[in-house]
Design brief:
This protein has 3 helices and 32 strands. It has about 525 residues and is an alpha+beta fold. A 5-stranded antiparallel beta sheet has the order 1-2-5-6-32. The protein has a 5-stranded antiparallel beta sheet with strand order 14-19-18-17-16, with no helix packed on it.
């Protein structure tokens, strides 16, 4: 019995010892599991925290790219609505003073929310695909909100053809990040709908410029009276166009390509002097249009009924004894009497390179002229372009026929050439070359016998792809030919001089109009 009790006691003790051991292992297992779980929690927390900032940045980035798009559209809207008051002929033109230089705006209606900032650069050459270095070196404009861009200090009439718009979407600053993190920028190029063709329509005056010509009404059959110059403020009755077809049209009647009303002479050749009237302009190939054709030969001369037969003995005139208080414009038979002078805005008629004339683009009714027809005159002038309605060069005086060569097709310039005239149309006896003054000897241009001198060598620049540098004549010292309205002939006509090239319109000669249709494209995301 004693032995059995001892065995029982030993078994009990062994059981107690085994339970204690197993209990310790469970505790260690529990602790280890807690450590693993805590570690995983730390890792998950770290991952969560590490993804929070990129998530917020991505959210901000999405908002700001849409904000940048909103900025582009806002700038586009301002540009497309920057219209001015209608021109004298009724055409609505853009007003560059209303073009934006910078813009800002909010896209979510709160001052602390997402917004955009826009900066605009203006160019005469397409900036599409060009980098910041190119843009900064080719941006010839200065721009102030409320005044718009000024493309060239020498001539404020040069207009921008392209706008480079850079819009940046701006969001709220994220915790622990810089203010610009998540902001995004877009750029685009807007091509303006540009037509820099001169808008014809100007006043016609009597020779003393005391009165302008005014249609009694803009209707068929109206006669034309005189209005004191100080009171010439009725454009629809007072602005006239000298067309390429040699017609004098009432500008307000010729809008949007309409034929318009033309100053018209007698119905039959041989009729006596009579009032000029407004009649519908005949078609360009209508043989009965002879009484609407007018050539400027220092007076407005009509054409014979046989149009190719030359000038008739009819003239537009104030009559032999002008009555400017109550008189009417006459189609005078015989002596022309008091003539009428057109302002440059009336237009150049058919004068062009094809008639061997050189038309100034700013004074677009004026051509290069040998002053007073005297080849040895001390300076040359720009003068109303002589015209020949009947046949090429007929009745155009020699002093308006200047000969030079345009660059070949595909070539922008042609250098080292002469510009010639032929006195009394005589060749070679009357051949003279246009020459620039030597350095330090003033700016006036003259003519001399052609002698191959460097002063008689000119570079004709036609189209370089940049309007500022195109359509000029450059002398041997790199100066540009200019119609200088600050230095004039006693008749009020600009002297032809040389000056530093600046892209201004008075330095452009036989320049075609530049037309660019509206377009909006070249979208890019930028970081520069």
């Amino acid at each position: 019995m004693i032995r059995l009790a001892n065995h029982f006691t030993a078994l009990r003790d062994r059981t107690r010892t085994s339970g204690t051991t197993e209990s310790g292992v469970a505790m260690l297992t529990a602790i280890f599991f807690m450590v693993v779980v805590a570690g995983l929690s730390v890792v998950l927390l770290s991952v969560t925290l590490s993804q929070s900032a990129p998530g917020l940045t991505a959210q901000k980035s999405t908002k700001t790219i849409y904000s940048a798009q909103a900025g582009l559209q806002a700038a586009l809207g301002v540009m497309r609505t920057a219209s001015g008051t209608p021109a004298a002929g009724g055409e609505v033109l853009g007003d560059t003073a209303k073009l934006p230089c910078t813009l800002t705006g909010s896209v979510d209606g709160t001052a602390s929310g997402t917004s955009y900032t826009v900066a605009v650069q203006y160019f005469t050459t397409d900036p599409t695909g060009k980098g910041k270095t190119w843009r900064d070196s080719n941006d010839g404009s200065s721009c102030v909100n409320g005044a718009g861009p000024v493309m060239n200090a020498g001539d404020s009439s040069i207009r921008p053809r392209f706008a480079f718009i850079r819009s940046t979407g701006v969001g709220v600053t994220l915790p622990g990040q810089s203010a610009t993190t998540g902001n995004r920028s877009l750029s685009a190029v807007y091509k303006f709908k540009v037509n820099n063709a001169n808008v014809a329509g100007g006043l016609m005056y009597n020779v003393s410029r005391s009165h302008c010509l005014q249609a009694v009404s803009a209707t068929v059959g109206s006669v034309i009276r005189y209005q004191p110059a100080a009171s010439c403020n009725t454009p629809e009755k007072e602005l006239w166009i000298y067309s390429k077809e040699y017609r004098l049209q009432l500008a307000s009647s010729a809008l949007n390509g309409a034929p318009g009303l033309c100053i018209t002479g007698p119905a039959l050749d041989g009729e006596d002097s009579q009032n000029a009237t407004l009649q519908p302009c005949a078609a360009a190939n209508d043989p009965s249009r002879w009484n609407q054709l007018w050539s400027w030969t220092n007076s407005w001369q009509g054409q014979k009924a046989n149009i190719t037969g030359g000038l008739s003995n009819y003239c537009l005139s104030a009559g032999p004894s002008p009555d400017y208080s109550s008189g009417r414009v006459k189609v005078q038979r015989g002596s022309c009497g008091d003539r009428f002078d057109a302002s440059p805005q009336v237009g150049a008629g058919a004068a062009s390179k094809s008639t061997n004339q050189v038309v100034n683009y700013k004074e677009f009714g004026r051509c290069l002229d040998v002053t007073n027809g005297q080849i040895g005159y001390a300076y040359m002038i720009s003068y109303p372009c002589k015209q020949a309605a009947g046949a090429a060069n007929q009745s155009i005086n020699w002093n308006h026929k200047w000969f030079y060569t345009e660059p070949p097709s595909g070539q922008a310039t042609l250098a080292n050439q002469e510009i010639r005239v032929y006195v009394d149309n005589s060749d070679p006896g009357g051949k003279y070359c246009f020459q620039s003054p030597p350095s330090g000897a003033g700016a006036d241009t003259t003519f001399e016998r052609c002698n191959n001198s460097p002063r008689q060598k000119w570079e004709r620049v036609y189209n370089t792809g940049n309007y500022l540098s195109s359509y000029v004549f450059i002398d041997y010292l790199g100066r540009c030919l200019v119609a200088d309205s600050t230095s004039t002939h006693p008749g009020g006509y600009s002297k032809i001089r040389v000056a530093a090239c600046n892209g201004s319109l008075e330095q452009k000669w036989n320049a075609p109009p530049v037309y660019v249709d509206s377009d909006f494209g070249g979208f890019r995301e930028v970081s520069e």
